[in-house]
Write a structure and sequence with these properties.
The structure is a homodimer of 283-residue chains.
Chain A (H helix, E strand, L loop, with lengths): L9 H5 L22 H27 L5 E8 L5 H7 L9 E5 L5 H4 L5 H4 L8 E5 L8 H4 L5 H20 L2 E9 L2 H11 L12 H6 L2 H15 L6 E5 L3 H19 L10 H9 L2
Parallel strand pairs in A: 1-3, 1-4, 2-3, 4-5
């Protein structure tokens, strides 16, 4: 068994606690990890079966009546790598045990309801690892920056969000919230790459540059959201993401931590094993 | 590049055409494949990126307005390996591009609607590879065997199903229907294994033996469903599944065929590439 490249548990290093300043986070850093891209990719592959195995146990628990589940919330500026995290980290779990939902610009019907309405509908079921690719946080991020709602409504949403997440937590949902943090220069390079490759054009949207122009406003909106909604039951983690391999392995570790703390056990048989063996033999 | 272990395209060998007899299919066979378990696993791994790549193109196409999508319908007797196919074949595709739905015993609300009501709600969106783990075919399988509806209603359903599938096809859905075919002895061995392992108890249900007792009735119901609903736009394939590795690699090949025939292309840029490069450089 090779030595773990983790020199420290990254969770406390990435956790958004008292006095957190987003501007103080270096997007190039790799907190807690000693190694390079190759080490990161090796670690990702080595840990994947552990995460998948824990999810399977959680699913088995749910079949016996358990209500616990995990919800990973991903937020980030464009190109930060949410898709890659989902593909490489969540993609290693049995697809029968995951539920990925991408929140797009709200439809007219969604807008006619409270902002949490469409979110409630996508909460994962028991035993499932759910992923929100964007989430209700858009309503205090682009919502704030673009003034999509009156300021007093935006102000109320932070509390509405923590109430909602407390309710989910009380109902058995372990919430892990991750902001993937890149630098403006890194975003520029990644957008340029999309403009250079025929197989990437579809990922590019001219509107992305309009949002990019509001970088400082978005960082401020993130700072406010992070400090007001990082709670003990629904903590935020800011993951430096200029190195894609680090972002992936760090989110995998946060997911592993969450599942390990749940420590799901195989449920006991709810039938008489010996009797069923006899029935089967006679069948 | 090693020689393909496929000596013949398995699709025509597995296809349910005129004169098909389920009783004539050997569950131990490995049609079209020359090799053993190790060759099968190697092939599965080698072809996975091709399937994932084609799905990504199909997704890109949908972002540019395309409506095409794929629906894999899996039916089988208990323990035949649907879950393993989903984990090992579908699990190699980006989870953002797949949608797996398991149909359980209908709820009272579902029963209050037409039998296709709950099915329509789970049809995959554009660009997605959807998987039905069980499906509307339950309504002519257990529905027929257990007489869950009057015989004349069951009789009508075959036509209702082909109409429904024709409609899906006309709307851009490529349908691939697979019955995983195991022998009663193989099922007995797999059920016995579930009774022998603490981590498998949760998969065992005493009711499974009640269904097992009706094996001939189920085979008859499958025969009728297969011959009445295998159409050119929604063909059935019966995949011998006593060898799990064969079932997986065969379903992968059917999925690859379906995606290859769609031959999705990267969409052209919908913006002025040079102009966007300039805007980006100035940002």
């Amino acid at each position: 068994m090779p030595k773990s490249p983790w020199t420290a548990d990254p969770a406390p290093l990435l956790f958004v606690g008292a006095g957190f300043e987003l501007s103080g986070v270096d997007p190039d850093a790799t907190p807690g990890f000693h190694g390079d891209k190759q080490d990161g990719e090796r670690e990702l592959e080595a840990v994947a079966p552990e995460v998948a195995g824990l999810q399977e146990r959680l699913y088995a628990e749910s079949r016996a009546g358990g209500v616990r589940r995990v919800l990973l919330i991903l937020q980030a500026m464009d190109t930060a790598g949410k898709g890659g995290v989902i593909r490489h980290v969540v993609g290693e779990i049995d697809p029968q045990g995951t539920k990925v939902y991408g929140f797009k610009k709200p439809t007219p019907e969604e807008l006619s309801h409270d902002f949490l309405w469409r979110v409630r509908a996508q909460v994962p079921g028991p035993g499932i690892v759910g992923v929100f690719d964007r989430s209700h946080y858009e309503d205090v991020l682009i919502g704030r920056v673009r003034q999509l709602a009156p300021p007093e409504e935006i102000e109320k949403r932070y509390r509405r969000i923590t109430d909602f997440e407390n309710e989910l937590s009380a109902g058995g949902t372990t919430i892990v919230k991750v902001m993937l943090h890149i630098s403006p220069d890194e975003q520029k390079a990644r957008l340029a790459a999309r403009l250079d490759r025929e197989d990437k054009y579809w990922k590019y949207n001219p509107g992305d540059l309009d949002e990019r122009a509001l970088w400082p406003e978005y960082q401020e909106a993130y700072q406010i959201a992070l400090e007001r909604t990082s709670t003990s039951v629904a903590p935020w983690f800011v993951v430096p993401a200029n190195h894609k391999w680090y972002a992936r392995v760090a989110v995998q570790r946060l997911l592993l931590d969450a599942l390990s703390r749940l420590d799901p056990a195989w449920p006991a048989a709810t039938f008489d094993i010996a009797a069923e063996k006899k029935r089967l033999a006679a069948s």
